[in-house]
Amino acid sequence: MTQPLLETDGLAVRFGGHVAVDAVTCSFHAGELTAIVGPNGAGKTTYFNLISGQITATAGRVRLMGEDITRAGIAERCKKGIGRAFQLTNLFPDLSVLENVRLVIQAKQNKGFSLFSMADSHTEITMAAMAILERVRLDPWKDQTAAELSHGNQRKLEVALLIALDPMVYMFDEPTAGMSVDEAPVVLDLIAELKAETNRTILLVEHKMDVIRTLADRIIVLHNGALVADGPPAEVMASDIVQEAYMGRELEDV
Ligand SMILES: Nc1ncnc2c1ncn2[C@@H]1O[C@H](COP(=O)(O)OP(=O)(O)OP(=O)(O)O)[C@@H](O)[C@H]1O
To answer: Which stretches make up the ABC transporter domain (predicted)?
Structure first.
């Protein structure tokens, strides 16, 4: 089997006496979209934080393409190819939508990444940014400030910034949360496109069963911080451990 893009090996973090992520060993491969599910407080966000570098593990390892990045900070992981959907606070609220995307392209270019290395002029960066905005259907709002956007459009801008970053590992935390029924499909279609066209790996924390069914190749289930199920969606959802113990009711409720 090919080398995983991303691996966590016995990854754990303890907050005081509470083990929030409990020795999770898991590999993620190129071209694969994995949904991470589990009841509230299961450790999904904490596992994400350990991968993206928001918090540091108390035990275990994170490896990106074989390289140990367990001790790397957020910026270093980002530079190496871990891209987490920008939260609202990562946007520059007073800059235009276009400028936000241009800044990410420029930052990536300055760090020697290849995707936009040909875009060496102001015009070319603007054209690359516009192409991304068209993809996420934000081009009509290009001159508005990020702060002026609706919630749904701000989420689309987060996706646009991630596409501009073009990481090896795309991380989405409930990407359609708070979106209207009209807006959510745009973001879901984009994630499906990313999956189809890139050799990246995509991680998705998600509660909505329909989203998981549409997008996921694989589901991993966390419970009390531990990995308790891992496999194709139909198999995992039908498993006794998921149905009986915790997931069935929660996911059906959605
Ligand atoms: N910084 C922290 N300090 C102390 N405890 C924390 C911290 N972050 C998370 N926890 C605890 O770790 C556990 C896992 O939380 P986490 O937010 O990762 O769960 P989750 O699966 O993402 O839940 P949800 O679906 O509600 O977002 C919870 O019991 C939470 O209270």
So the answer is: 6-249
210 in Cβ contact with 253 (< 8 Å): no
Looking at domain 1-81+168-254, its CATH class is alpha beta
What's the pLDDT tens digit per position in 153-203?
988 899 999 999 999 999 999 888 888 888 888 889 989 988 888 789 999
- Asked if 164 contacts 104 with a C-beta cutoff of 8 angstroms, the reply is yes
Domain ranges of the chain: 1-81+168-254, 90-166
Pocket around ligand 1 at a 6 A CB cut-off: 15, 18, 20, 38, 40-46
To 5 degrees, how large is the angle CA 210–CA 45–CA 241? 60
Complex confidence, ipTM:
0.96
Given ligand 1 and candidates 13, 45, 223, which is best to mutate, with the most ligand atoms within 8 Å of its CB?
45
State pLDDT tens for residues 2-52.
889 999 999 999 999 899 999 999 999 999 999 999 988 999 999 999 999
